[in-house]
Amino acid sequence: MAVPAKPVMVAGLLALMMVCVPAAGARTEYLLQDTLKSILVVSFGLAAAWVYFWPRVQGSLRVRLHGVLVLPVMLMLYALGSMVWSHTYLGGVEAVRWFVFSLLTLVGMNSLTHQRMMWTQKRVELLAWGVHLGAVAASLWGALQFWFDWSFFAQGPSPASTFVNRNFLAEFVVCTLPWSVWLLTRLHDKTSVYLQTFALGLNVVVLMMTGTRSALVGLVVLMVVLPMLVVVYRRYAVSSGWHPRHVIGLVAVFALTIFALGRLPTINHALIHDFGHGTAIDRAGSRSLSVARANEYRSGSFAVRTLMWQATTRMIAAHPVAGVGAGAWEVQIPLYQTASLLETDYYAHNEPLQLLAEYGLTGGLFLLLLLGYLCRSTYTTLAARSLQARREAPQRAFILSSLGVLLLVSLAGFPWRMAGTGALFALGLAVLAGSDLRIHTRRQTFRSGVWGGPLTWCWCWRCRRPDAMAVLSGLAVVTGVAIYVAQQAIECEAQLVAATRIAMSISASGVPNDPMWAEHKSKMLQQVYAGIRINPHYRKITPIVADSLASWGDWPNAVRVWQSVLASRPNVVILQANVARGLLYAGDVAGATTYLDRALRIQPDAPTLPSLQVLLWSRTGHLQQALAQAQTLLASGVIDADLVQVAYTLGLRQNRPDVAIRALTLGIQTWPNRAVDGWIKLGDIYSQAQAHDPAKATHAYQQALQTVDPAYRQWVLDKIPASYRAQME
User: 168 and 257, same structural domain?
Assistant: First the structure.
């Protein structure tokens, strides 16, 4: 005997997931926002699977399957296979991502379908309410950040709500708009329709606050498509008795909401610093107009992304069949970059291109089948013939528009990899697949077997008690692993972020080598090594600590941390160069030469390598050659910390104070927050015989005292020669 299903509970869990994921955020930096959101998606997805399969241990269940499941499963299997020959850790991460995607799609399509259309609509409405309320909550947090500089959630570029980056917020919100508009057609009471319209207007205003251009383009497209869908499917709207004045009032509420809220100015200090006082409308307008500026295509973000896309295209051409391996784009991309772009990001900012680069023909097949399925679904929706298909058409049309705008923003970002938009992607496909299942059920007795077209095949699997027990056993293992991984991720990020915060505090003091920091440095090293032991593949945070260590002169620990990252990302030129510098300062010339040679083989024109070559020559006795190259680099505008330091040292050793002065002056101009040491050294040069100039020496020492934190004024005074110190006190 078949056990009654509990699809409403499953649909409720999925709806609650779509509320919590965008609405919840970490208050501190010790847990990254998308890590929290990923944990929530996995938790709700597994909970939904448990609720769906648990009652089946008492009887059989017909689990409905759809051809769309092949898409994520295909990528998951490829990712598992690529763990053998490509990057094991990143391949595993990709396999987990596509497993969760597959699980959400499977559970979603089975929980959002019922033989009676009325019950199906209720379940999809429940999910749509979850999507809408989650978007409203995230938009509310973003609006508070924009209008009142509300800093409740830890984040990067504001207003990011709970998403750490405003682009992530914009990509999510624009994809939820079709769900919200579809809900408008499902409301009975006209007052509720007006309230929903106001909430929809708030979401649009927050989207404008972000200034994300790809999302704004998507918004423009939806402003055309969604009203057309409302008009075409108006007879399926639940609320009745609409008159022209009602429609005019509805449009007026939407327009007035955008105009009124969109004209409220920001008091967010970061936004004012970057863009000046402005409103959401101003922000959207200025960002939209920026696409017409020539410098946007020479040095702006579009220029940088174009270079990344070109490098990714070269990667695809080099590995057209097998790809470079799931998740391995960031490992291999340095091999295909030019000197004008040096490891600026971890993603290609174009999902189709990155998929082709990593998955090869498998990724191409995925894209071809996905586009084919969406095109076929669009055709069958617009040309619906049967009564069941016509009833399904409004819901399908709005979900298709959501998936369409998701594909649009995917051309300039990586929303598939973010927890919120990734879950929305999976559930959108689940709703479409569930609709296909219902349409085909009308033509079939729904016994075991396969039916449907080549892109919409359906299959009924009779899940008996042994099958259910096997599924639940697998879920138990996956749940245990998920709990362990979540705990490790939280611990790892807490350790690494805490170490980074200490490192930044020490560097900001201006006197990182003061003995008072000894205890803090010891704690910082314990934390960073603890994080590395948990996850040695964490490239995003760990190098920040190493860079700080190097700036303090702690080269052994800096090299150790950099090497831990290089073990996972061996082609990153900047890390190769950093290790070479560290080994040089530690006296290991042979090791430094090895790393420099590796870097030169990867990117011989990388801008950081000439200064490293100067440093190597200076350490191996080729002083004249090093000095000449340093002068050439400084004259051509090549500035980095090591070049400034080695040019200063060479200038003193070769009796060329002009070179030393030039290097220190450029260093002070480039890094004014670290200028104290430069001013002291300038004063020392001008106070000595080779460049004797008491007036300039006095000025330099005075600048050092004016620049340093008052708490460290005495430390600077002790560095000033006695003959000048009396003039300073």
Answer: yes
